[in-house]
Here is the input.
Amino acid sequence: MSSEVYDCIVIGAGIQGSCTAYHLAKNNKTTLLLEQFVLPHSRGSSHGQTRIIRKAYEQDFYTHMMEESYELWAQLEKEAGIRLFSRTGLLVMGPEDGKNFQLIKSSLQRNKVPSVELQRHRFSQHIPNVNLAAGDGALVDSTAGVLYADRAVRAAQMIFQARGGIIKDGQKVVHIQPGAVVTVTTGSDMYKARSVVITAGPWASTLLSLTGLELPLRVVKINVCYWKEKVPGSYSIRNRFPCFIQLEPKEAEHDIYGLPSNEYPGLMKVCYHMGSETDPDERDGRMDRADVDAVGCYIRRCFPGLVPVPAVVESCLYTITPDRHFVLDRHPAYSNIVIGAGFSGHGFKFSPVVGKVLCELSMGQVPSYDLSPFSIRRFQGHRRSAL
Here is the structure.
Protein backbone atom coordinates (compact mmCIF):
# COMPACT_ATOMS: atom_id res chain seq x y z
CA MET A 1 0.00 0.00 0.00
CA SER A 2 1.28 3.43 -0.99
CA SER A 3 1.55 5.84 1.95
CA GLU A 4 1.10 8.91 -0.30
CA VAL A 5 -2.23 10.70 -0.32
CA TYR A 6 -2.75 12.12 -3.81
CA ASP A 7 -4.77 15.21 -4.52
CA CYS A 8 -6.70 13.17 -7.06
CA ILE A 9 -6.93 9.68 -8.51
CA VAL A 10 -8.40 9.41 -12.01
CA ILE A 11 -9.76 5.96 -12.83
CA GLY A 12 -9.67 5.17 -16.55
CA ALA A 13 -6.95 6.34 -18.95
CA GLY A 14 -9.01 6.79 -22.09
CA ILE A 15 -9.20 10.24 -23.65
CA GLN A 16 -11.53 11.71 -21.00
CA GLY A 17 -9.45 10.45 -18.06
CA SER A 18 -6.18 11.40 -19.75
CA CYS A 19 -7.42 14.96 -20.41
CA THR A 20 -8.71 15.24 -16.83
CA ALA A 21 -5.33 14.13 -15.48
CA TYR A 22 -3.62 16.59 -17.86
CA HIS A 23 -5.65 19.50 -16.45
CA LEU A 24 -5.07 18.40 -12.85
CA ALA A 25 -1.32 18.29 -13.42
CA LYS A 26 -1.45 21.75 -15.01
CA ASN A 27 -3.15 22.92 -11.80
CA ASN A 28 -0.23 21.45 -9.81
CA LYS A 29 -2.36 18.69 -8.27
CA THR A 30 -0.57 15.45 -7.41
CA THR A 31 -2.45 13.01 -9.60
CA LEU A 32 -2.48 9.26 -10.19
CA LEU A 33 -4.04 7.94 -13.41
CA LEU A 34 -5.12 4.30 -13.10
CA GLU A 35 -5.91 2.01 -16.05
CA GLN A 36 -7.15 -1.58 -15.82
CA PHE A 37 -5.50 -2.69 -19.07
CA VAL A 38 -1.86 -2.50 -20.17
CA LEU A 39 -1.44 0.65 -22.27
CA PRO A 40 -1.99 1.22 -25.10
CA HIS A 41 -5.07 -0.95 -25.58
CA SER A 42 -8.06 -1.25 -27.91
CA ARG A 43 -10.69 -2.54 -25.48
CA GLY A 44 -12.63 0.66 -24.84
CA SER A 45 -13.81 3.78 -26.67
CA SER A 46 -10.69 5.91 -27.23
CA HIS A 47 -8.56 3.78 -29.56
CA GLY A 48 -8.33 4.04 -33.33
CA GLN A 49 -6.70 6.61 -35.51
CA THR A 50 -9.46 9.12 -36.24
CA ARG A 51 -12.56 10.90 -34.93
CA ILE A 52 -14.69 13.74 -36.32
CA ILE A 53 -14.39 17.18 -34.73
CA ARG A 54 -17.21 19.64 -35.45
CA LYS A 55 -19.31 22.53 -34.20
CA ALA A 56 -22.41 21.35 -36.10
CA TYR A 57 -24.80 20.34 -33.32
CA GLU A 58 -28.52 20.64 -32.69
CA GLN A 59 -27.89 22.03 -29.18
CA ASP A 60 -26.23 25.39 -28.55
CA PHE A 61 -24.50 24.16 -25.39
CA TYR A 62 -22.43 21.67 -27.38
CA THR A 63 -21.51 24.28 -29.99
CA HIS A 64 -20.43 26.67 -27.22
CA MET A 65 -18.28 23.99 -25.56
CA MET A 66 -16.65 23.22 -28.89
CA GLU A 67 -15.45 26.83 -29.21
CA GLU A 68 -13.09 26.27 -26.31
CA SER A 69 -12.40 22.67 -27.22
CA TYR A 70 -10.84 23.76 -30.53
CA GLU A 71 -8.60 26.18 -28.63
CA LEU A 72 -7.56 23.53 -26.11
CA TRP A 73 -6.83 20.97 -28.84
CA ALA A 74 -4.55 23.55 -30.51
CA GLN A 75 -2.84 24.17 -27.18
CA LEU A 76 -2.27 20.45 -26.56
CA GLU A 77 -1.00 20.07 -30.13
CA LYS A 78 1.52 22.86 -29.51
CA GLU A 79 2.63 21.53 -26.11
CA ALA A 80 3.11 18.00 -27.39
CA GLY A 81 4.60 18.97 -30.75
CA ILE A 82 2.32 16.45 -32.45
CA ARG A 83 -0.24 17.18 -35.16
CA LEU A 84 -3.66 16.26 -33.79
CA PHE A 85 -6.10 17.83 -36.27
CA SER A 86 -6.70 18.16 -40.02
CA ARG A 87 -9.39 20.51 -41.24
CA THR A 88 -11.60 18.93 -43.90
CA GLY A 89 -15.04 20.42 -43.27
CA LEU A 90 -18.11 18.36 -42.37
CA LEU A 91 -20.84 17.64 -44.91
CA VAL A 92 -24.24 17.30 -43.20
CA MET A 93 -26.95 15.68 -45.34
CA GLY A 94 -30.51 14.95 -44.32
CA PRO A 95 -34.18 15.54 -45.11
CA GLU A 96 -34.36 19.27 -45.84
CA ASP A 97 -37.54 19.70 -43.81
CA GLY A 98 -36.40 17.27 -41.10
CA LYS A 99 -36.17 18.48 -37.51
CA ASN A 100 -32.51 17.58 -36.94
CA PHE A 101 -31.29 19.10 -40.20
CA GLN A 102 -33.13 22.35 -39.46
CA LEU A 103 -31.84 22.45 -35.86
CA ILE A 104 -28.23 22.07 -37.04
CA LYS A 105 -28.72 24.66 -39.78
CA SER A 106 -30.20 27.23 -37.40
CA SER A 107 -27.58 26.52 -34.72
CA LEU A 108 -24.74 27.12 -37.19
CA GLN A 109 -26.32 30.40 -38.26
CA ARG A 110 -27.20 31.55 -34.74
CA ASN A 111 -23.72 30.80 -33.41
CA LYS A 112 -22.03 32.32 -36.46
CA VAL A 113 -20.14 29.13 -37.27
CA PRO A 114 -18.49 29.41 -40.71
CA SER A 115 -20.70 27.23 -42.88
CA VAL A 116 -22.14 26.90 -46.38
CA GLU A 117 -25.48 25.60 -47.56
CA LEU A 118 -25.06 23.67 -50.81
CA GLN A 119 -27.74 24.02 -53.45
CA ARG A 120 -28.90 20.79 -55.02
CA HIS A 121 -28.17 21.85 -58.60
CA ARG A 122 -24.55 22.64 -57.67
CA PHE A 123 -24.00 19.85 -55.15
CA SER A 124 -21.97 17.57 -57.42
CA GLN A 125 -19.64 20.44 -58.34
CA HIS A 126 -18.70 20.85 -54.68
CA ILE A 127 -18.95 17.21 -53.57
CA PRO A 128 -18.06 14.76 -56.35
CA ASN A 129 -18.79 11.03 -56.13
CA VAL A 130 -21.73 11.47 -53.73
CA ASN A 131 -25.43 11.13 -54.64
CA LEU A 132 -27.60 13.49 -52.61
CA ALA A 133 -30.87 11.71 -51.84
CA ALA A 134 -34.11 13.17 -53.12
CA GLY A 135 -35.51 15.59 -50.57
CA ASP A 136 -32.19 15.92 -48.73
CA GLY A 137 -30.53 19.22 -48.02
CA ALA A 138 -26.77 19.64 -47.60
CA LEU A 139 -24.60 22.04 -45.65
CA VAL A 140 -20.95 22.18 -44.67
CA ASP A 141 -19.51 23.08 -41.26
CA SER A 142 -16.28 24.65 -42.52
CA THR A 143 -14.53 24.45 -39.12
CA ALA A 144 -14.79 20.67 -38.88
CA GLY A 145 -12.25 17.98 -39.61
CA VAL A 146 -10.40 14.91 -38.40
CA LEU A 147 -8.88 14.40 -34.96
CA TYR A 148 -6.03 11.89 -34.72
CA ALA A 149 -7.35 9.88 -31.79
CA ASP A 150 -4.47 7.61 -30.78
CA ARG A 151 -2.05 10.52 -31.04
CA ALA A 152 -4.36 12.68 -28.89
CA VAL A 153 -4.47 10.12 -26.07
CA ARG A 154 -0.69 9.77 -26.14
CA ALA A 155 -0.20 13.54 -26.21
CA ALA A 156 -2.39 14.16 -23.15
CA GLN A 157 -0.65 11.35 -21.23
CA MET A 158 2.79 12.59 -22.28
CA ILE A 159 2.18 16.15 -21.03
CA PHE A 160 0.57 14.78 -17.85
CA GLN A 161 3.67 12.73 -17.08
CA ALA A 162 6.00 15.58 -18.03
CA ARG A 163 4.27 17.66 -15.36
CA GLY A 164 4.85 15.01 -12.70
CA GLY A 165 1.72 12.92 -13.11
CA ILE A 166 1.89 9.16 -12.54
CA ILE A 167 0.24 6.53 -14.75
CA LYS A 168 -0.19 2.97 -13.49
CA ASP A 169 -1.67 0.50 -15.96
CA GLY A 170 -2.73 -3.09 -15.43
CA GLN A 171 -4.52 -1.86 -12.28
CA LYS A 172 -8.14 -3.02 -12.22
CA VAL A 173 -10.09 -1.26 -9.48
CA VAL A 174 -11.96 -3.72 -7.24
CA HIS A 175 -13.05 -1.48 -4.37
CA ILE A 176 -13.68 2.20 -3.64
CA GLN A 177 -14.03 3.32 -0.04
CA PRO A 178 -15.55 6.82 0.15
CA GLY A 179 -14.52 9.29 2.83
CA ALA A 180 -12.73 12.59 3.32
CA VAL A 181 -9.82 10.61 1.90
CA VAL A 182 -11.00 8.06 -0.68
CA THR A 183 -9.30 4.66 -0.74
CA VAL A 184 -9.06 2.95 -4.12
CA THR A 185 -8.10 -0.73 -4.11
CA THR A 186 -6.87 -2.52 -7.22
CA GLY A 187 -6.01 -6.15 -7.77
CA SER A 188 -2.46 -5.49 -6.61
CA ASP A 189 -2.35 -2.31 -4.51
CA MET A 190 -4.21 0.34 -2.53
CA TYR A 191 -4.14 4.10 -3.12
CA LYS A 192 -5.55 7.14 -1.31
CA ALA A 193 -6.64 10.56 -2.57
CA ARG A 194 -8.62 13.59 -1.48
CA SER A 195 -10.75 13.27 -4.59
CA VAL A 196 -11.46 10.66 -7.24
CA VAL A 197 -12.63 11.09 -10.84
CA ILE A 198 -14.25 8.08 -12.50
CA THR A 199 -13.84 8.08 -16.30
CA ALA A 200 -14.12 4.36 -16.88
CA GLY A 201 -15.97 4.37 -20.20
CA PRO A 202 -17.87 1.11 -20.76
CA TRP A 203 -16.91 -0.01 -17.25
CA ALA A 204 -18.46 3.06 -15.59
CA SER A 205 -21.48 1.14 -14.28
CA THR A 206 -19.22 -1.46 -12.65
CA LEU A 207 -17.11 1.23 -10.96
CA LEU A 208 -20.11 3.32 -9.90
CA SER A 209 -21.77 0.29 -8.32
CA LEU A 210 -18.80 0.16 -5.94
CA THR A 211 -19.96 3.58 -4.68
CA GLY A 212 -23.63 2.58 -4.41
CA LEU A 213 -24.67 4.50 -7.53
CA GLU A 214 -26.64 3.10 -10.46
CA LEU A 215 -27.06 5.13 -13.65
CA PRO A 216 -28.99 4.18 -16.81
CA LEU A 217 -25.90 3.52 -18.94
CA ARG A 218 -26.02 1.09 -21.83
CA VAL A 219 -22.92 -0.29 -23.61
CA VAL A 220 -23.10 -1.07 -27.32
CA LYS A 221 -20.52 -2.54 -29.66
CA ILE A 222 -19.97 -0.53 -32.83
CA ASN A 223 -18.72 -2.06 -36.06
CA VAL A 224 -16.10 0.36 -37.43
CA CYS A 225 -16.06 -0.27 -41.18
CA TYR A 226 -13.62 0.72 -43.92
CA TRP A 227 -14.72 0.60 -47.57
CA LYS A 228 -12.44 0.40 -50.60
CA GLU A 229 -12.28 3.27 -53.10
CA LYS A 230 -12.81 2.08 -56.66
CA VAL A 231 -10.42 4.83 -57.76
CA PRO A 232 -7.77 5.35 -55.06
CA GLY A 233 -7.89 8.87 -53.64
CA SER A 234 -11.50 9.63 -54.68
CA TYR A 235 -12.54 10.22 -51.08
CA SER A 236 -9.16 10.98 -49.54
CA ILE A 237 -8.14 13.55 -46.96
CA ARG A 238 -5.32 14.51 -49.31
CA ASN A 239 -7.87 15.49 -51.96
CA ARG A 240 -9.79 17.46 -49.29
CA PHE A 241 -12.83 15.22 -49.21
CA PRO A 242 -14.88 16.18 -46.12
CA CYS A 243 -16.11 14.15 -43.20
CA PHE A 244 -19.85 13.60 -43.42
CA ILE A 245 -22.97 12.84 -41.39
CA GLN A 246 -26.09 11.45 -43.04
CA LEU A 247 -29.16 12.23 -40.95
CA GLU A 248 -32.16 9.91 -41.20
CA PRO A 249 -30.84 7.57 -43.92
CA LYS A 250 -33.52 5.53 -45.68
CA GLU A 251 -31.65 2.32 -44.89
CA ALA A 252 -31.46 2.68 -41.11
CA GLU A 253 -32.95 4.16 -37.94
CA HIS A 254 -29.78 5.95 -36.83
CA ASP A 255 -27.31 8.30 -38.52
CA ILE A 256 -24.44 7.16 -40.73
CA TYR A 257 -21.13 9.00 -40.61
CA GLY A 258 -17.84 8.88 -42.47
CA LEU A 259 -14.30 10.19 -42.59
CA PRO A 260 -12.10 10.56 -45.68
CA SER A 261 -9.62 7.82 -46.51
CA ASN A 262 -6.47 8.38 -44.51
CA GLU A 263 -5.36 5.78 -41.96
CA TYR A 264 -5.80 2.90 -44.38
CA PRO A 265 -4.78 4.22 -47.83
CA GLY A 266 -7.57 3.64 -50.31
CA LEU A 267 -10.15 2.84 -47.62
CA MET A 268 -12.83 5.25 -46.38
CA LYS A 269 -14.25 4.95 -42.86
CA VAL A 270 -18.08 4.83 -42.96
CA CYS A 271 -20.04 3.61 -39.93
CA TYR A 272 -23.49 3.26 -38.43
CA HIS A 273 -23.92 5.46 -35.34
CA MET A 274 -25.32 2.64 -33.19
CA GLY A 275 -24.62 -0.98 -32.36
CA SER A 276 -25.69 -4.02 -30.39
CA GLU A 277 -25.87 -4.01 -26.60
CA THR A 278 -23.01 -5.94 -25.06
CA ASP A 279 -21.07 -6.67 -21.91
CA PRO A 280 -17.74 -4.82 -22.34
CA ASP A 281 -15.88 -7.88 -21.08
CA GLU A 282 -17.65 -10.16 -23.57
CA ARG A 283 -17.58 -7.91 -26.63
CA ASP A 284 -15.71 -10.36 -28.85
CA GLY A 285 -18.63 -12.75 -28.64
CA ARG A 286 -20.97 -10.30 -30.42
CA MET A 287 -21.03 -10.73 -34.21
CA ASP A 288 -24.15 -8.72 -35.17
CA ARG A 289 -23.70 -7.38 -38.72
CA ALA A 290 -27.13 -5.94 -39.53
CA ASP A 291 -25.68 -2.44 -39.25
CA VAL A 292 -22.88 -3.32 -41.69
CA ASP A 293 -25.46 -4.50 -44.24
CA ALA A 294 -27.43 -1.25 -43.78
CA VAL A 295 -24.33 0.86 -44.38
CA GLY A 296 -23.50 -1.26 -47.43
CA CYS A 297 -26.95 -0.49 -48.90
CA TYR A 298 -26.45 3.21 -48.16
CA ILE A 299 -23.04 3.20 -49.84
CA ARG A 300 -24.46 1.47 -52.89
CA ARG A 301 -27.04 4.27 -53.20
CA CYS A 302 -25.03 7.36 -52.22
CA PHE A 303 -21.30 6.63 -52.58
CA PRO A 304 -20.88 5.06 -56.04
CA GLY A 305 -17.08 5.30 -55.86
CA LEU A 306 -16.85 2.82 -52.96
CA VAL A 307 -17.04 -0.97 -53.12
CA PRO A 308 -20.21 -1.68 -51.04
CA VAL A 309 -18.62 -4.53 -49.08
CA PRO A 310 -16.35 -3.57 -46.16
CA ALA A 311 -12.66 -4.30 -46.60
CA VAL A 312 -11.91 -4.00 -42.86
CA VAL A 313 -14.24 -4.24 -39.84
CA GLU A 314 -12.95 -3.21 -36.41
CA SER A 315 -14.88 -2.54 -33.22
CA CYS A 316 -15.41 0.15 -30.63
CA LEU A 317 -17.72 0.59 -27.63
CA TYR A 318 -20.21 3.37 -26.96
CA THR A 319 -21.58 3.99 -23.46
CA ILE A 320 -25.00 5.53 -24.01
CA THR A 321 -27.35 7.54 -21.82
CA PRO A 322 -31.11 7.66 -22.54
CA ASP A 323 -30.89 11.23 -23.92
CA ARG A 324 -27.42 10.77 -25.50
CA HIS A 325 -26.01 13.61 -23.35
CA PHE A 326 -22.97 13.08 -21.13
CA VAL A 327 -22.78 12.64 -17.36
CA LEU A 328 -20.55 15.33 -15.83
CA ASP A 329 -21.35 15.62 -12.15
CA ARG A 330 -20.37 15.00 -8.57
CA HIS A 331 -21.55 11.81 -6.87
CA PRO A 332 -24.89 12.61 -5.16
CA ALA A 333 -23.65 11.19 -1.84
CA TYR A 334 -19.90 11.92 -1.99
CA SER A 335 -18.92 15.34 -3.33
CA ASN A 336 -15.25 14.38 -3.70
CA ILE A 337 -16.11 11.60 -6.17
CA VAL A 338 -16.63 13.05 -9.66
CA ILE A 339 -18.11 11.23 -12.64
CA GLY A 340 -17.51 11.60 -16.37
CA ALA A 341 -19.50 8.96 -18.24
CA GLY A 342 -22.05 8.19 -20.95
CA PHE A 343 -20.31 9.97 -23.81
CA SER A 344 -22.67 8.21 -26.22
CA GLY A 345 -20.31 7.95 -29.17
CA HIS A 346 -19.75 11.69 -29.61
CA GLY A 347 -17.60 12.73 -26.65
CA PHE A 348 -14.04 12.44 -28.00
CA LYS A 349 -13.98 15.90 -29.59
CA PHE A 350 -15.03 17.47 -26.26
CA SER A 351 -12.39 15.77 -24.12
CA PRO A 352 -10.14 18.81 -23.46
CA VAL A 353 -13.18 20.76 -22.17
CA VAL A 354 -14.59 17.72 -20.36
CA GLY A 355 -11.21 17.20 -18.70
CA LYS A 356 -11.16 20.85 -17.64
CA VAL A 357 -14.68 20.64 -16.15
CA LEU A 358 -14.02 17.36 -14.31
CA CYS A 359 -10.81 18.88 -12.96
CA GLU A 360 -12.78 21.90 -11.70
CA LEU A 361 -15.38 19.68 -10.03
CA SER A 362 -12.69 17.60 -8.34
CA MET A 363 -11.07 20.78 -6.97
CA GLY A 364 -14.40 21.99 -5.56
CA GLN A 365 -14.62 24.87 -8.01
CA VAL A 366 -17.63 26.25 -9.84
CA PRO A 367 -17.43 24.65 -13.31
CA SER A 368 -16.82 26.78 -16.39
CA TYR A 369 -20.08 25.66 -18.00
CA ASP A 370 -23.69 25.13 -17.02
CA LEU A 371 -23.68 21.40 -16.38
CA SER A 372 -27.44 20.98 -15.93
CA PRO A 373 -27.77 19.07 -19.26
CA PHE A 374 -25.22 16.58 -17.87
CA SER A 375 -26.50 16.21 -14.30
CA ILE A 376 -27.30 12.92 -12.60
CA ARG A 377 -30.60 14.38 -11.35
CA ARG A 378 -32.10 14.16 -14.83
CA PHE A 379 -32.21 10.37 -14.51
CA GLN A 380 -34.63 10.35 -11.57
CA GLY A 381 -37.33 7.87 -12.45
CA HIS A 382 -35.16 5.96 -14.93
CA ARG A 383 -34.53 2.31 -14.24
CA ARG A 384 -31.51 0.66 -15.83
CA SER A 385 -33.55 -2.43 -16.79
CA ALA A 386 -36.15 -0.26 -18.53
CA LEU A 387 -33.75 0.89 -21.25
In short: The mean pLDDT is 93. The helical segments are 15-26, 60-80, 99-110, 123-126, 149-162, 204-209, 290-302, 351-362.
